[in-house]
UniProtKB/TrEMBL annotation:
Residue stretches making up the Amidohydrolase-related domain: 17-320
GO biological process: secondary metabolic process
UniProt keyword Hydrolase present: yes
Keyword vocabulary terms for this entry: Hydrolase, Lyase
Record bears the keyword Hydrolase: yes
GO molecular function: carboxy-lyase activity; hydrolase activity
Name of one Pfam family that matches: Amidohydro_2
Entry protein name: Amidohydrolase
Length: 343
């Protein structure tokens, strides 16, 4: 039984080093334990070796019995709030470092492309580079694009190309709820993140993206945020004539998506499994933030025995197999000099 962790985070030291010396956030400082990364005065993260040391992460995979991890840089990897040139350079740096992780540890990581989605023309060029030169296996999709909806028509060409390539888009929360009624009470990460991705997925549905691109593969993290609990309420308003182009129940659209299993309540995972079916679930731990062992134990506790193999790895392996063409890690680490330089 192959085990694939579909939400795993690694912070390349080269990316954090690029933020050293900045006079304002996001900025980084080296410490004896690793790095301190300041997004803003009210959001400061400490990244020790669990976050930055790739060899250590491979040992964690081995100890947990995880064969492969789908890796991205979490909210810090969303650089769409930078200007065009900086966003391009940081995404290129991230993609090359993630590709190097794939090449250094063959078969252990399936890395996601980070794209400057605020500039869709540039994002398309960088997607081709990420797939063709770097061999990345999917796309990191932030919950919003510097405040712009992920369903904005300007982003549709990126979705069209992802659909052609058969590449899944892994949604992840970003920083859209940082405001006085949220941050003083530490609700940005605990609750705000869940609404951020819920708004993103719902906008893709009601904004017509899933209908326009029926083969687009979207992965919603954290057992679907709030949507498994609210789909009935949403359907009441669909029945009142809201979103007249939606010709089926809202839950039917959810069943076209995939969901990772990151949560701390068996009841939440059970509810999602009943709603979308185990074939749409992907085991995930959210390491290094959460426990790998807890994530695996939760799946085994909730999912029926005959579906466990699919949830722990089989579903992810199928999802990561592109529908068009073959995407694989390059045999050797990428050479930065061959990267495109359009701005």
């Amino acid at each position: 039984m192959a085990v694939v962790d579909s939400q795993w985070h690694w912070y390349p030291p080269a990316f954090l080093d690029a933020h050293i010396g900045r006079t304002h956030g996001p900025r980084a400082v080296r410490t004896a334990e690793g790095y301190v990364y300041e997004v803003s005065p009210d959001e400061v993260w400490k990244y020790d070796r669990r976050f930055t040391d790739l060899d250590h992460q491979v040992r964690v995979l081995d100890e947990a019995g995880i064969d492969m991890a789908v890796v991205s840089v979490a909210a810090a990897g969303d650089v769409n709030d930078r200007d065009r040139a900086e966003a391009r350079d940081l995404c290129l740096l991230l993609n090359e470092e993630l590709s190097r992780a794939q090449a250094t540890h063959p078969g252990r990581f399936a890395a996601l492309a980070h794209l400057p989605l605020k500039h869709p023309d540039l994002a398309l060029d960088m997607l081709e580079d990420a797939v063709g030169r770097l061999g990345l296996r999917g796309i990191y999709l932030p919950g919003s694009i510097d405040g712009m909806s992920v369903a904005d028509e300007r982003v549709w060409p990126v979705y069209a190309r992802a659909e052609e390539l058969g590449l899944p888009l892994f949604l992840h929360p970003t920083r859209s709820f940082r405001e006085p009624r949220v941050t003083p009470y530490k609700m940005e990460v605990t609750i705000g993140y869940m609404f951020d991705t819920s708004f993103a997925s719902m906008s893709l549905i009601v904004g017509g993206v899933l209908d326009r691109h029926p083969r687009l593969k979207i992965v919603h993290p954290h057992v679907g945020g709030t949507l498994p609990y609210l789909h009935g309420r949403i359907d009441v308003y669909r029945g009142k004539g809201w979103w007249p182009d939606l010709d089926r129940p809202f839950a039917d659209y959810l069943r076209r998506m995939w969901f990772d299993t990151v949560c701390n309540q068996p009841e939440s995972l059970s509810l999602l499994a009943d709603l979308v079916g185990p074939s749409r679930l992907l085991f995930s731990s959210d390491y290094p933030y959460w426990s790998t062992r807890h994530g695996i134990d939760l799946v085994r506790k909730v999912i029926p025995d005959d579906q466990v193999a699919g949830v722990l790895g089989g579903n992810a392996i199928e999802l990561l197999s592109p529908a068009v063409g073959a995407v694989s890690s390059p045999a050797s680490p990428p050479t930065p000099s061959s990267a495109p330089h359009s701005t």
